[in-house]
Amino acid sequence: MTLALSMVTFDCADPQRLAGFWAAALKTSVAGDYGDFVFLAPPVDGGAALGLQRVPEPRVGKNRVHVDLTTPDRVGEVARLVGLGATVSYDQVGTVPGIDWTTLADPEGNEFCVAEHKAS
């Protein structure tokens, strides 16, 4: 038996609102809306699907798990995501050889990173 990562799920207060942000961010669409659960289609270019589930409690503290997204244009993608409603937390440039990244938060405060791999 083997396992494959097929979906990452975020707990949130408003799955429909967050689905709008993430569908635009990942350039995909809602595959199913079941009230307390919304599932996005996997991105056309590949990767896991995203699930959003309503929970009653607010997020407290730092995420224990977050998604990392990669792009050859980190600065441009970060600007696009901010335009969609994300907020920038901080940049890590030159800290780790071969990769720079920006940590952001989605409209509900869930952290995620946008990374650009550099040729060495």
The low-pLDDT segments are none
- Sheet of most strands: 4 strands, mixed
How far apart are the first and last residues' alpha carbons, in Å? 37 Å
CATH architecture of the largest domain: 2-Layer Sandwich
Number of helices: 2
Overall 3D form: globular
Mean pLDDT: 93
* Cα-atom radius of gyration: 15 Å
> If strands are numbered along the chain, what order do they take across the biggest sheet?
1-4-3-2
Helix amount: 10-25%
Strand content bin: 35-45%
**Which fold name is given in CATH as the topology of the largest domain?**
Signal recognition particle alu RNA binding heterodimer, srp9/1
User: How many structural domains are formed by the residues?
Assistant: 2
Task: Report on this structure.
This protein is of the alpha/beta class and 120 residues long. The chain is 19% helix and 40% strand. It folds into two domains: 1-56, Signal recognition particle alu RNA binding heterodimer, srp9/1; 65-120, 2,3-Dihydroxybiphenyl 1,2-Dioxygenase, domain 1. The strands form two sheets. It has a four-stranded mixed sheet with strand order 1-4-3-2, covered by helices on one side. A four-stranded mixed sheet has the order 5-8-7-6, with helices on one face. A hairpin with a 2-residue loop joins strand 6 (87-96) and strand 7. The termini are far apart.
SSE layout and pairing:
Blueprint (H helix, E strand, L loop, with lengths): L6 E6 L2 H12 L3 E4 L3 E4 L8 E6 L12 E4 L3 H11 L2 E10 L2 E7 L5 E7 L3
Parallel strand pairs: 1-4, 5-8
Antiparallel strand pairs: 2-3, 3-4, 6-7, 7-8
